[in-house]
Specification:
This is YggT family protein. Keywords: Membrane, Transmembrane, Transmembrane helix. It comes from Amycolatopsis bullii. The chain has about 80 residues and is mainly alpha-helical. It is built from three helices and no strands. α1 crosses α2. The longest helix has 27 residues. The chain is globular, with a radius of gyration of 14 Å.
Length: about 80
Amino acid sequence: MRVITAIGAIFAGIEVLYMIMVLAGANAGNAFFQFIKSLAVPLALFWPGLFPVDSPSLQVILDFGLAAVFWLVVTGIIARFAGR
């Protein structure tokens, strides 16, 4: 049960880290940025572009913030059922 919750927290953490790096203007050519991006984009699943907005910053928050919340909720539900 804790392992499932931890996996969800790691996935959400990757999404939040990428979101912060993009919003803070991190160097997109940096190897660490590219590594986090290579993890965050596939983990975002169907969220990117689901709610189109005009502000690029708000778009990043919606795309990756909702993905982070999604992972926390889904793994929390799975952990609850696994604990029964």
